[in-house]
Design goal:
The chain is an alpha+beta fold and 166 residues long. It has helices at residues 71-77, 109-121, 145-155; strands at residues 2-7, 28-30, 39-44, 50-57, 65-70, 84-93, 99-106, 126-130, 136-143, 158-161. The model has no long low-confidence stretch (mean pLDDT 89).
């Protein structure tokens, strides 16, 4: 139990510690030590409201606070206006072992779509996602360990936890 705060505007669209793009409208949280990808149930002890959030960032780094939540989470928990609340955190699910690989980032969306087609022709699930730098990223996954090795060997890229770029 401890104090939680929320963060939003100035961090919206920036990279989180997990590598995904921060979305202040998603139900996510920042915690100093819980593994990234952990699912937690957060209860506002002042009003009883609760929300299930995924830890995708590190923090807070202010005083005695134990958790930073997204703007959407603060709204759901009922402390958007006050800015902070006393909360209880319970782990509901550990992070998954699922992995995905960012195999490229392209200025031209047509090139990104072509890479997705190459991956799909190779039997992999793939998608594009917009980046904060106006590049379109191509991501293969979800992948198990053997698929990770194969995709890295054929296409290269950067391995990350599933969903970390959504």
């Amino acid at each position: 139990m401890g104090q939680a705060s929320w963060y939003g505007g100035q961090f919206h669209g920036r990279a989180t510690a997990s590598g995904e793009t921060f979305d202040m409208n998603a139900l996510t949280a920042a915690h100093r030590t819980l593994p990234l990808g952990t699912w937690i149930e957060v209860t506002n002890l002042e009003n009883g409201r609760h929300a299930e959030l995924r830890v995708n960032d590190r923090g807070p780094f202010v005083g005695d606070r134990i958790l930073d939540v997204s703007r959407a989470a603060a709204r759901k928990l009922g402390f958007l206006v006050d800015g902070t609340a006393r909360v209880k955190i319970e782990v509901t699910a550990p992070p998954t072992a699922c992995r995905e690989i960012q195999v490229g980032a392209y200025r031209e969306e047509e090139n990104a779509r072509a890479m997705v087609a190459r991956l799909e022709d190779d039997g992999e699930s793939a998608r594009t996602e917009p980046g904060p730098d106006r590049l379109t990223r191509v991501v293969a996954g979800p992948l198990d360990a053997s698929q990770v090795d194969r995709v890295l060997e054929r296409f290269g890229g950067e391995v990350r936890s599933c969903g970390s770029g959504d």
